[in-house]
Amino acid sequence: MKLATKIGLTTATIITAYLIGNYLLTPTIPKLENTWWGSRDPSTEDTTIKPFRINVSEEVLEDLQNRLANTKLTPPLEGIQHQYGLNTKLLSKIVTYWRTKYDWKKREIFLNKYPQFMVSIQGLRLHYIHLKPQKRDNVKTLPILLLHGWPGSVREFYTTIQLLTKPTKGRNFIFEVIVPSLPGFGFSEASVRPGLGPIEMAVIFKNLMKRLGHEKYLVQGGDWGALIAQQMAVLFPDQVLGIHSNLCFDTSVLSALKLALGSLYPSWVVPKNFEHRLYPLLSFVMNLVEETGYMHIQTSKPDTVGAALNDSPVGLAAYILEKFISWTNPDWKNFEDGGLLKKYTYDDLLDNIMIYWISGSITTSMRLYSHALDNVMTIINVQRISITVPSACAIFPNEIFPQPGAMLREKYQNLVHVSENSDGGHFPAFELPHVYAEDIFVATEKMLEANSQRN
């Protein structure tokens, strides 16, 4: 047999085996170890829960003021708003506000309004907010884990926390809310070695909830938090009562096929008010390419860009605020003011930036993109396993990758709630907290009913 024929047959066999293994055979749920991610000796690690308060020194604040005062900005091009990134005219205005009106001491009091704690899980000291509601007769309390993403933080949930812990008319339940900073984000320690991706974080958060005394609980997530929530539901279905996500997605071949077929007749796939977000398909793909350039940098060279952002508060602000413009509403990049004050205040946005700045966590937060590739085949295989726990998807039209309910049911086989909202983008807990909290309440009613039927 000729060499070329042998190579061809070998290649065909490998490809066939790959396709069968990855698309025809059901993958098994992996057994993940409780990996030790910290630098300290496990035998001497203090695992007690300790109260935590944000307390920034005057030295750090003076250094920040000096850096803000010595900002160097390049003038924008004529006739350009934010199509090239954050316009430096707006950035200069925000920096002036930061220097002269943003009062950190008042913001620090605000950020410390909820009980915060530290506890070591798998060698990492994790920061989390933990608010327990007042006990009320005939009202049960449900634990819920809220997971943020990048470039967000626990700050996104501050209004939502309050709303979830208060009774609502006609409902017999409220929530005990746990909001951790992801490892390497904000005040949570980062891993000292490669490999702590989203699937490994799923194990950490299962162990965190167990450490807090919760064997069964709900999980909510957006951005990276959405992926971690998915994987917690797959890996630990006996612990997860249900998941609520504002970034539901299905990466299966069938989902991709539905997306492509929608080009012929969009109403097969999306409701009328969503058509312009996905079709024409080429425009959608080009917008996705434009909005995900950061991802390629952070996946391949997070430490390089991190060095620049960790040294410059203005650079950090520009890098993060750009996302809050185009990911909240893509049309806002055409507005001179970036549209930011339509949904946020400068104090809101600077709180989030300050959490990254004072903790020095921008580099370690961006490493999550790279760590996700360390075990990419494990993630791919887990992504192929359907979620059987009750699930709810809150879909917002300005999400950069909105998938309607028709594209999600293969992944979420017990999809009990889908809300296709008329407004909102990538940060709904931050921009529309009342809509977001109400959706969690409505979805939870349905998830509880689904669990009662399953049991």
TrEMBL record:
<keyword id="KW-0378">Hydrolase</keyword>
<dbReference type="InterPro" id="IPR029058">
    <property type="entry name" value="AB_hydrolase_fold"/>
</dbReference>
<dbReference type="GO" id="GO:0033961">
    <property type="term" value="F:cis-stilbene-oxide hydrolase activity"/>
</dbReference>
<dbReference type="GO" id="GO:0005789">
    <property type="term" value="C:endoplasmic reticulum membrane"/>
</dbReference>
<keyword id="KW-0812">Transmembrane</keyword>
<dbReference type="InterPro" id="IPR000639">
    <property type="entry name" value="Epox_hydrolase-like"/>
</dbReference>
<keyword id="KW-0472">Membrane</keyword>
<comment type="similarity">
    <text>Belongs to the peptidase S33 family.</text>
</comment>
<dbReference type="InterPro" id="IPR010497">
    <property type="entry name" value="Epoxide_hydro_N"/>
</dbReference>
<comment type="function">
    <text>Catalyzes juvenile hormone hydrolysis.</text>
</comment>
<dbReference type="GO" id="GO:0004301">
    <property type="term" value="F:epoxide hydrolase activity"/>
</dbReference>
<feature type="transmembrane region" description="Helical">
    <location>
        <begin position="7"/>
        <end position="25"/>
    </location>
</feature>
<feature type="active site" description="Nucleophile">
    <location>
        <position position="223"/>
    </location>
</feature>
<feature type="active site" description="Proton donor">
    <location>
        <position position="369"/>
    </location>
</feature>
<dbReference type="Pfam" id="PF06441">
    <property type="entry name" value="EHN"/>
</dbReference>
<feature type="domain" description="Epoxide hydrolase N-terminal">
    <location>
        <begin position="49"/>
        <end position="157"/>
    </location>
</feature>
<dbReference type="InterPro" id="IPR016292">
    <property type="entry name" value="Epoxide_hydrolase"/>
</dbReference>
<dbReference type="GO" id="GO:0097176">
    <property type="term" value="P:epoxide metabolic process"/>
</dbReference>
<protein>
    <recommendedName>
        <fullName>Epoxide hydrolase</fullName>
        <ecNumber>3.3.2.9</ecNumber>
    </recommendedName>
</protein>
<keyword id="KW-0256">Endoplasmic reticulum</keyword>
<keyword id="KW-0058">Aromatic hydrocarbons catabolism</keyword>
<feature type="active site" description="Proton acceptor">
    <location>
        <position position="426"/>
    </location>
</feature>
<keyword id="KW-1133">Transmembrane helix</keyword>
